[in-house]
UniProtKB/TrEMBL annotation:
Glycosyltransferase is among the record's keywords: yes
Domain of life of the source: Eukaryota
UniProt topology in membrane: Single-pass membrane protein
GO annotations of cellular component type: endoplasmic reticulum; membrane
Main location per the UniProt record: membrane
InterPro entries registered for this protein in UniProt: Glyco_transf_61_cat, Glycosyltransferase_61
Protein's cellular compartments: Membrane
Biological processes per GO annotation: protein O-linked glycosylation via mannose
Protein name per UniProt: Glycosyltransferase 61 catalytic domain-containing protein
Gene Ontology MF term list: protein O-acetylglucosaminyltransferase activity
Record key words, sorted: Glycoprotein, Glycosyltransferase, Membrane, Transferase, Transmembrane, Transmembrane helix
Length: 480
């Protein structure tokens, strides 16, 4: 006899049973589903990952050593190189000396363009000679020599390492850290991804660590405390090692090998043509190919850290223009004539009223770091006397209108902010009183008497008229 069909009462009981089971086990199931799209608490993440790993994957040994018991030492590969900036795979260090293992030493770039003694930069030929490396600093050795020296293996420093072979001389300065060292590191490394998008998305893994072999942990932060903000916001997971850590490894008498290193050396960069043209170490890195959007990876991370959505912020740069004048009038050095400062403020307020621009007259030292980053990211025209405050141009959105106006004592000029502005695809104007200039018609570098003084002349009316001209340009439709 066949089974009788279920009654309505039986169907209801089955549904109630299923509902009860869901209420009992549903939360755990839902949390597992959410884990894919949203971070779970650390302990849940750990236990869930361990359970998954134990259930489906055999435990693996964490390999911390590269062995070559029966084979030759893996050779070093120079992936990319320009003076002062190198991407190198399998770079070895042993007892404080850097080793390039190669059976074809002629294919290795001149060592003086890779590495130096890391000394402070002083003018003159004697100082240049003193900074050149010798065999106590860096060597090229064959695989046979490496086997005899290193033995049967080396400890692995995995991932990507930023390696800084510089003295503390320039590191404790916002501009030199962010617009030279950090700028140059990312311009070099980003050459490996020529397809970085306008959103800053990249296929490159972030660096794991940053190694300073000439610097202690107390001498990398700047007086404005911006260095750490830029570093921690753009690569939050980065760890740092300093001279004590370098000495620890050297004293162990054990070879180490960097899986991949991006190596920066200021003295080595000075051999490059672009350095000789612009006196900027990062300029030599632009000899490498790269994406036009290369800097947006770093910039957008910093802006997002400052509490702004880069997508929304990009849209805002196409609307009401923002003019930011960074005043140094209370700084005590390198200031406009008081009357010329007042005239500039008056002229800016006039065009604010007439054209609806958003104008900010600020003193960077009175702003928080977040306020500086937030304002810079929205700024269309940034202006001020030559000085550290203009480093904020790094966080501007490059558009056709984006402009930096820099005020110099007549006859004086430095490439610092001029070159950096152009490197980001923006326009720079220098001012000597009522005269202005822009690339390619810029004067030679000069620091005349009065350059650092407090009587810098400026015609505020000329500045305001140039602002109107620059902001009259139509934006490109595809800049976001």
């Amino acid at each position: 006899m066949g089974l009788a069909p279920p009654t309505i009462r039986e169907i209801i009981l089955v549904w109630l049973l299923l509902a009860g089971l869901f209420l009992m086990f549903g939360p755990d199931m839902r949390s597992q589903l959410q884990f894919v799209s949203a971070p779970a608490p650390a302990q849940q993440h750990l236990s869930s990952s361990l359970a998954s790993s134990n259930a489906s994957v055999e435990q693996q040994y964490h390999d911390t050593r590269m062995n070559w018991d029966v084979s030759s030492v893996p050779q070093t590969k120079v992936v990319a190189h320009v003076p002062g900036w190198s991407i190198i795979d399998r770079l070895y260090i042993y007892k404080g000396v850097v080793y390039i293992v190669s059976n074809e030493p002629r294919r290795v770039p001149d060592l003086s363009t890779i590495y130096s003694k890391g000394m402070a930069i002083e003018p003159g030929p004697d100082s240049e000679l003193a900074r050149l490396p010798d065999e106590t600093d860096i060597r090229i050795i064959s695989t046979t020599e490496a086997t005899a020296l290193f033995g049967s293996g080396a400890q692995i420093l995995d991932g990507v390492t930023y390696f800084v072979n510089d003295s503390p001389q320039f590191i404790q300065h916002y501009y030199h850290w962010s617009a030279e060292l950090w700028f140059g590191f990312w311009r070099t490394y980003s050459a490996l991804d020529p397809f970085i998008t306008v959103s800053g998305n990249t296929t490159l893994p972030p660096p794991c660590r940053m190694v300073f072999n000439r610097l202690d942990a107390f001498r990398w932060r700047d007086y404005a405390r911006m260095n750490q903000w830029v570093t921690r916001s753009s690569v939050p997971e980065l760890t740092m090692e300093f001279i004590d850590d370098w000495d620890d490894r050297a004293k162990m008498g054990v070879p180490f090998v960097f899986e991949r290193v991006v190596l920066a050396d200021r003295s080595a960069a000075m051999h490059g043509l672009n350095y000789q043209r612009y006196q900027r170490t990062a300029a030599t890195a632009f000899g490498l190919l790269g994406s036009t959007n290369w800097w947006l990876t770093i910039r957008n991370n910093v802006i997002q850290f400052a509490g702004l959505n880069p997508v929304v912020e990009v849209a805002s740069t196409r609307g009401r223009p923002v003019i930011t004048y960074i005043s140094r009038q209370k700084w005590g050095r390198r200031m406009l004539k008081p009357a010329d400062h007042e005239r500039l403020v008056l002229e800016l307020r006039k065009i604010e009223a007439a054209y609806g621009y958003e104008v900010h007259i600020v003193e960077a030292e009175k702003m928080t770091r977040l306020e500086q980053l937030q304002l810079a990211s929205r700024t269309t025209i940034l202006m001020g006397v030559h000085g550290n405050g203009l480093t904020s141009l790094l966080w501007m959105k490059p558009t056709r209108r984006s402009t930096v106006m820099e005020f110099f004592y007549p006859g004086g000029f430095a490439h610092d902010y001029e070159w950096t502005t152009r490197a980001l695809g923006m326009i720079h104007y220098g001012f000597w009183g009522s005269d202005s200039f822009t690339s390619p018609n810029v004067p030679p570098t000069a620091y005349p008497e009065g350059f650092q003084g407090n009587e810098i002349p400026l015609d505020g009316g000329v500045v305001a008229r140039l602002c109107i001209l620059r902001l009259s340009l139509e934006e490109d439709v595809d800049e976001g």
